[in-house]
Amino acid sequence: MEKHEVIKTWEELEIKDDFMFAKVMRDKEICKKLLERLLQTKIRDIVYLEEQKAIDIEKDAKSVRLDVYIEEGNRVFNLEMQTTNKRNLPKRSRYYQGMIDLNTIEKGENYKKLKESYVIFICTFDPFHQGKAQYTFENYCIEDKELKLDDGAKKIFFNAKDYINAENEELREFLKYVNGEKSDNPFVREVEDRVAQVKASKEWRLEYVTLLMREQEIWEEAEEKGREEGREEGREEGREEGIRGTVNLLKELNIPLQTILVKIQQQYNLSPEASKKYL
User: Considering the entire predicted model, what is its pTM?
Assistant: First the structure.
């Protein structure tokens, strides 16, 4: 696989990378401290429901793979690290929250058993372009904004790019670190040490390399599908369909848009401007 800004070697991984974030958050104390900084509240204890939790409600339904999925008492938390802006986070957070609810209550049980759910995205970009370091959403009455629905569902988006605007110093320093900048904050140093420990693990290194190999197979399958569609037409129209076929398949596999752009530019000799029309 050709190396570019999206695909990283094991040595290049940072806390903002999905794989590294999930492994670091397996440290219970670090995960608890991070939640306390993100939510500005004391967390008594956490229970891991599963790392990289996959939720399949029905065999034909779209599955959900969650980075970090934990609970504390009557609250459930889903933590996600997001480095690419696919412009679908609002709908995606809604889908995640619905699937989490279905996963936490048995069929026929009383709705009162639903736990408070928090879907939290830590983004390396500003998802709403307002320059805020944090965006918190709850459901409320449009006619009376003081009236909350109080359904226990919260969606919170953090913007590391504008970390300077975070009111809390501990949160600001962590977001600064996610943004790729140095910090002397004790918690950040603790996270950095854990990142180094993860990188020293031969087992996790092998797991990561195996995932990269699987992604290579996905690329090859997608590119071959695109070439086949192009050959069937044998004309420019066929080439167009081939490119679109490749793009559609990669989108279904949740490949980052920037990665898709790079690949079709290389595979079909497209300029950056020409490739954007296929997304």
Answer: 0.74
pLDDT of residue 1: 37
Work out whether the CA dihedral 197, 199, 200, 202 comes out positive or negative.
positive
Question: Measured between alpha carbons, how far is 196 from 38 in angstroms, rounded to an integer?
Answer: 23
**Spatial separation of the C-alpha atoms in residues 217 and 160, rounded to whole Å:** 32
Place 5 in a pLDDT band, splitting at 50, 70 and 90: very low
Window from 188-192, 220-224, 275-279 with minimum mean pLDDT: 220-224
**Distance (Å, rounded) from C-alpha 186 to C-alpha 191?**
9
The Cα 141–Cα 129 span in angstroms is: 24
Q: Which residues pair with 117 in a beta bridge?
A: 76, 153
Decide if 115 contacts 71 (C-beta within 8 A): yes
